[in-house]
Amino acid sequence: MEKISVAVSGAYGRMGREVCRAVLEEEGLELTGAFDLHGTGKSMGEVLGRPDLDIVIKKLTKESLKEISPAVLVDFTTPMAVMQNIEIALQCGVRPVVGTTGITNIDLSHINQWVEQSELSAIVAPNFALGAVLMMKFASIAARYFPQVEIIELHHDKKIDAPSGTALKTAEMIAAARSTDPPEKDELLKLPGARGALQDKIHIHSIRLSGLVAHQEVIFGGQGQTLTIRHDSLDRSSFMPGVILAIKSVPKLKGLVYGLENLIP
Ligand code: NAP
Question: By the 8 A CB rule, do 127 and 154 touch?
Fold first, then answer.
């Protein structure tokens, strides 16, 4: 069977390196390109400690992508770079698998339009960890029974967007599932921001500390009880089974798929 050719943008970053390693280890996949603004001209083989790998890190442009023409471009870059990368990929006939967060609903509608024009497919997932997908699913079930809920998301200090894409997606899923809105009340805020940010009337609190990877608690409140649903990504390898599933799935799909839950039966 022919291997799926995969290029990675953000390959020099923390997630990008992990994705390159996972692709190299996966049967049926072939790593054919590495793109980044950082580390350009360096050997990806040296970066990964795999001297047998003959790939030089390049800046992502239409020309550099066409040179490789992979089937799939996996993107783990930054909210500032990701939209241009997706547009380039689709213009070059390459299917994007996107893990970069900070993508807004307006961005998603642009991506959807580009995907439709290209007649290709794309996967965008704010969280590729199976446990996180289940956490969101469990939270949307609990939302039917508990109108009060707050989200606390905790990430490493290098994360540049806040709140996390997972927290926003969780809030969206809870809002879609709940039958009643939480009771409105006036609060005396002695410091602005003390109650976090509001999405769909749900308070989201973002914590950034070195030593953390990606964690989230969804705390529901009810009469005389709370229910806490928590997920911890202790290592970036937690995202890899989801990324590999998305790479293998995207060539068989049509259109834009948003969220790993849509790939899991
Ligand atoms: P990181 O270490 O900063 O890696 C991002 C890399 O992308 C950096 O090397 C950056 O270079 C590079 N880059 C910037 N602009 C680019 C461009 N136009 N083309 C190609 N590469 C470019 O960050 P990370 O921790 O790996 O995280 C990357 C993204 O993945 C973040 O948005 C994060 O929230 C997200 N994430 C998603 C999941 C998920 O499951 N969906 C899980 C973990 C992380 P410079 O340093 O020069 O800017």
Answer: no
